[in-house]
Amino acid sequence: MRVLIIGATSAIAEETAKAYAGKGARLFLTGRNGDRLSAIRDDLLVRGAALVETAELDVSQLDSLHTVIDSAIAKLGGLDIALIAHGILPDQARCQEEVSEALHTIQVNFTSTVAILTLLANYFEAQRGGTIAVIGSVAGDRGRGSNYVYGAAKGGLDRFLQGMRNRLYRSGVAVVTIKPGFVETPMTAGKAKNP
Q1: Are 3 and 78 a contacting pair, CB within 8 Å?
Q2: CA 179, 182, 184, 189 torsion: positive or negative?
Q3: Which ranges constitute the DSSP H helices of 47-130?
Q4: β-strands 26-31, 51-56 pairing
Q5: Which residue in 21, 23, 52, 67 could disulfide with 47, CB within 3.0 to 4.6 Å?
Q6: Three-state SS for 184?
Q7: Contact by Cβ (8 Å): 30, 8
Q8: What is the 8-class DSSP label of residue 142?
Q9: Is 150 noted as a catalytic residue in this protein?
Q10: Active site residue: 20, 123, 148, 150, which one?
């Protein structure tokens, strides 16, 4: 099994990588923090991964996405699964006050993901098989005053994935949207918790 994980330093992605490592998978991990990626790589090799390659990636640098995805395909000898798990949970008040913060939130959570998915969709469609899984959010299901910029990005992503799923179904490619709900992770630390 050959698995690409974009945003591999997120808590959910790291736990997913551990599950794949236990099955002897070949993994290619990306993230912004090279030291953290190295630590995760070492842990996954101990857990049974057949191979773990890493690449530092800032998803907002759209020009580098194609190079990193091509590198993953080359180093793993192809792809069976891609998990897109990057994202930021912004401060809504800052998004309301600063246009740059709102646009950065949309860039990271929607635009960069669309760019990655476009490249992966073309690869898997030509291969006529594989799985693309994306961590979305229930925040995109309806507009909430407390996080509507983040929710808008995730809502747009959900619609994009619906269309891509319909397109790729005929090619034997599964497109999975994962909406885990509110999960206790470092990304949600310090945020008010639901009952």
Answers
A1: no
A2: positive
A3: 65-76, 92-97, 99-106, 112-127
A4: parallel
A5: 21
A6: coil
A7: yes
A8: S
A9: yes
A10: 150
